[in-house]
Amino acid sequence: MQAWQLHVAEGATICPPTMDWENFITFASDAELMTLWGSGFLLLALVALAGERLRMRRARIDRVGWMPWTGIFLLCAVIGGGMLALSVPQLLRG
Question: Which of 18, 60, 62, 71 is deepest in the core (most CB within 10 A)?
């Protein structure tokens, strides 16, 4: 047996227990689902913001991009922020 190999007893698991996403999504409240969607939209807004920064800092200015990063950022940030603004108070209330 090499040093990097683990000896596991019969029936034992190496991985820690993980969250059961199927049950979470099934039994989640509307506020929890809206928080997840709002967080996803904000994550997409951050990706669009990074894309816009890369486009503005490109070495060859004559290379034209076709992706409307600013519009995508604004749309996703407004939708995500609105969803979080509506859902977080309900989550904090319980």
Answer: 71
Confidence class for position 15, pLDDT limits 50, 70, 90: low
CB under 8 Å to 36, separation ≥6 — which residues? 28
What H or E segment, with its residue span, contains residue 87?
A: helix 69-93
Give the span between the Cα atoms of 41 and 10, in whole angstroms: 44
- What is the C-alpha to C-alpha distance for residues 79 and 42, in angstroms, rounded to an integer? 8
What is the span of the domain harbouring residue 56?
A: 29-93
Q: Is residue 74 part of a domain?
A: yes
pTM for this prediction: 0.70
